[in-house]
Design goal:
This protein has 400 residues and is of the alpha/beta class. It folds into two domains: 2-152, Nucleotidyltransferase, domain 5, CATH 3.30.420; 196-384, ATPase, nucleotide binding domain (Nucleotidyltransferase, domain 5), CATH 3.30.420.40. The protein is 38% helix and 20% strand. It contains 15 helices and 14 strands. The chain has helices at 60-71, 106-113, 123-136, 156-159, 166-171, 180-194, 247-256, 260-269, 272-277, 283-291, 295-319, 329-334, 336-343, 355-360, 384-398, and strands at 2-9, 12-19, 24-32, 39-45, 51-55, 84-91, 102-103, 142-146, 202-208, 212-218, 221-225, 324-328, 366-367, 376-379. β13 (366-367) and β14 form a beta hairpin. α10 crosses α11. It is globular and about 60 Å long.
Length: 400
Amino acid sequence: MKVLVINCGSSSVKYQLMDTETGSILAKGLVERIGFGDAVFTHTRNNGPKQASTLPVKNHEIAMKHVLANLVGEDGVLGSLAEIGAVGHRFVNGGPEFIGPVVASEKVLEKLRKILDIAPLHNPAHMLGIEACIAEMPYIPQVIVFDPGFHARIPPKAYMYALPYRYYEEYGIRRYGFHGTSHYYVSHKAAELLGRPVEELRIITCHLGNGCSIDAVKDGWAVDTSMGFTPLEGLMMGTRTGDIDCAAPLYIMKREGVAPVEMDTIMNKKSGLLGVTGVSSDMREIESAVRAGSERAVLAHDMYCYRIKKYIAAYTGVLGGLDVLVYTAGVGEHSPLVREKSCEGLAFLGIEIDTERNARAVGGEAEIGRDGAPVRVLVIPTNEELVIAREAERLGKHGS
């Protein structure tokens, strides 16, 4: 089946047209700066050269018109939109009612519109994308795949917060976890590469990009995850604080008269690597500054790796031991230094990095652990779009 995968941001539409039988990408691209007169549209077909153009794009619906126009016709990869069997949409958080994927009926959308504020940086944009696709392709099944889906079996002792219980009952405040499609893909891919059933393996997956999260995986499902009610909790990230004393932002708000919405922006967009270095959230730039001797870059890098190490050790305890450690996403796939430093001192858990293998592993599947070490250490490029596409195919054929 040909499936169009859509991932919308507040001012962007990222898309891939995939053939789920082969896993091949027929076309992909990105519309950026939606709402401006100089929106940037990049499009690639059949792994050919990237085509770029600048044009006015008023809203997400117009962006989708441009996307679909480039998929069909003389220069496209489709004869008509009717060749698309389903559209799969990423949705960060559907609250306690929506964990697994669903077909986007009006009843479902009505419920989701009421909880857009549960993930204000992501959910409203995802909804715009869904509505735009329905407007352009009302006859094609629209399937919503939620980030926390892989975390559906996390037990209450791991997902509950020590707040008055009524906040969970009334507002669904609990740990949801995110990057679920990525953690699902790389944990199952790791089992495939090792030739063992995923249900037999104890796996820790490290999704390290601008956003970062770690999952503990047992019996083929996540049993704990570092992100929480929002993607703000857990590891130190590109611009997010990660774990922090809850009283710290309250103290800053009182001392500096900072409003809640401004504090939210500080914690989500001005903290993390960017906040500590004062220069960048890009790990490539930070590691360059580390090599140049920048004290704040060294500090930020040390903090980043130290927190990864703490979660790896903690989740090894949760799992009762460890068989496989996986690194994925932009930093996880491309930074040998982060992988090396986050594994330092963990030989007592069976985790030992082979320095030469690790240095060579940049941007592809690789095993970087020492021969004979109890824990296999892998680098696996993630493929969240393929997971979404296959879920969309399944529900597009059979319904929710």
